[in-house]
Amino acid sequence: MSFDVEVMSDQQLDELLLKPKKIPTWRLVNTQSEREKKRIRQMERHNKQLEVARLYQKKKQRARLLATKRKQEMQRQEHQERMKHKKKPSNEKDDGLEL
After folding, report:
1. Domain boundaries defined on the chain
2. Least confident of 1-10, 22-31, 84-93
3. Which sign does the torsion angle of CA 57, 59, 63, 69 carry?
4. What string of H, E and C letters represents the secondary structure of 12-67?
5. What is the pLDDT of residue 37?
């Protein structure tokens, strides 16, 4: 009986191990080690996915921070421009006629 542990679920592997049929010892040992390898690969894949998600979140957070800084800088520049236009001194009164 051949099998592929990548395709089989844990339940199917357990059933294979608990069958009343006699399984040769080498197959039993092989099955246990394959299950362990499968679980290790699953854990490594899961850890890699977590790391990728963490890096993505960090990248998004950095981008939001930069966008916020840019927005604040633009608002500050706009405010300075508005203040420049308001602060222009006007010495002329009544069309330049002084009494």
Report:
1. 10-83
2. 22-31
3. positive
4. HHHHHHHCCCCCCHHHHHHHHHHHHHHHHHHHHHHHHHHHHHHHHHHHHHHHHHHH
5. 85
